[in-house]
Amino acid sequence: MDKNTIIGFILIAAIVFVFSALNKPSEAEIAKRKKYNDSIALVQQQQAVIQQQADATKLNSANPDSTALNDSAAVALKSDAFGAFKTAAFGEEKFFTVENELIRLKFSNKGGRIYSAELKNYRTHDSLPLILFDKDESALGFTLTTTNNRVVNTADLYFEPVGEVTKDAKGNQTFVFRLKTDQPGSYLDFIYTIPANDYMVKYDIKATNMNAIIPPSMNLLEMNWSAKIRQQEKGRQFEERYSALHFKYLTDDVNKLKETKNDQEDPANKVKWIAFKDQFFSTILIADESFVSTSLTSEMMPEKSGYLKSFSSKMAVGFDPAGNQPTGFRFFFGPNRYKILSGYDKGVQGDEKLYLRDLIPLGWTIFGWVNRFMIIPMFNLFSTFIGSFGLIILLMTVVIKIVLFRMTYKSYVSSAK
Fold first, then answer.
1. Which residues pair with 178 in a beta bridge?
2. Cβ contact 207:214 at 8 Å
3. Which residues are bridge partners to 160 per DSSP?
4. Nearest to 278 by CA among 238, 248, 249, 305
């Protein structure tokens, strides 16, 4: 073995050693990974409990004499898996409807979530009520880790409504779902405020005396939000082309996932809002502060499924177990209309503007200006007394052709002279 070969081996060994040292995880990263693995193990434990319940149900059918014993064992297992939230692990799903002049929302006590959203002033191509989502087409849940290492998801728990829907002098309605624990005076409230005449719904999560149940160090809530986007129009091509998952960085521009194929992105910076958008309507989740550790996914749906795409988002949001500061959101359920979306930035400081209007594809440079100052105002004018989008588009086409004809005719006459 010559000298050059020996030197080569030494250099390779040195490179391997340095690379291993640089890529060795820190103590914080090791602890984070351990916590993640522990959470996965606890979730698997809960899934095992659910499977045991299913097995017990099958056994009860075959052996009726063992029903009471198996039910008791299943309840005990489930109670242990949900820890302090065991009282909320059992229940019956019930529904509550709240509406204003523009939207009709149905709530479910299971998960304390919005079960369906209907836009009252719009219809589908076949004159049916325009529903953005219903039943299991949409899901929203928060992961809670307890002081005794139980991991639960709010989507699996049963909330209780607090009183009736209240209405203030301006017509704003407030509806509260409460997630109780086995400790009196310790609970979590989901507070929904539906305005009298707006598409924007306020949504707050407020803890009360949860310090003994949720570790004070748990200052972030992990959350999952997903939805299947319905095909609302008869023709799928254009609706699919203009349906996409959009998101806005806290201090930067609006971005989107690809419309024409499956796509996934993990934004590196804080995110202000996430929009599940189709061609004419959107469901938007806006954080009062911001989302962190965000992961976004868009999947194409089969043509005959009745859906365009499936969107999902995983993120974390600030949380105060002591309840001094609620975790706040806003939900927008409405049309992609420039006037409406841009209206939420009126009177708002530059850094705090939402720029929801960027969901509308206006086109580049001069085309964007034409759309903004000519096409959109014309559409808004016609829509004040015409309810059919098809008729509005037809009239706009006629007007544009007349304008272009006059311009072309004048140009032709001038050149002929």
1. 160, 189
2. yes
3. 178
4. 238
Q: Are 179 and 88 in contact (CB under 8 A)?
A: yes
Closest of 228, 67, 215 to residue 147, by C-alpha: 215
Indicate the pLDDT class of residue 106, thresholds 50, 70 and 90. very high
Summary count for the chain: helices (H), strands (E): 8, 19
Residue with tokens 């039943």: 135
> 362: helix, coil or strand?
coil
pLDDT in tens, 26-58: 555 455 445 544 554 554 555 554 454 445 444
Give residue 71's pLDDT. Answer: 63
> Would you list the DSSP string of 37-73?
HHHHHHHHHHHHHHHHHHHHHHHHHH-GGGHHHHHHH
Distance CA 294, CA 255 (A): 13
- Is the CB of residue 290 less than 8 Å from the CB of residue 250? yes
Q: How far apart are the first and last CA of the chain?
A: 93
- pTM, two decimals, is 0.76
What is the rounded CA–CA span in Å between residue 354 and residue 368?
A: 19
Three-state DSSP class for 213?
coil
Residue pair 142/153 in contact by the 8 Å Cβ criterion: yes
Distance CA 10, CA 319 (A): 52
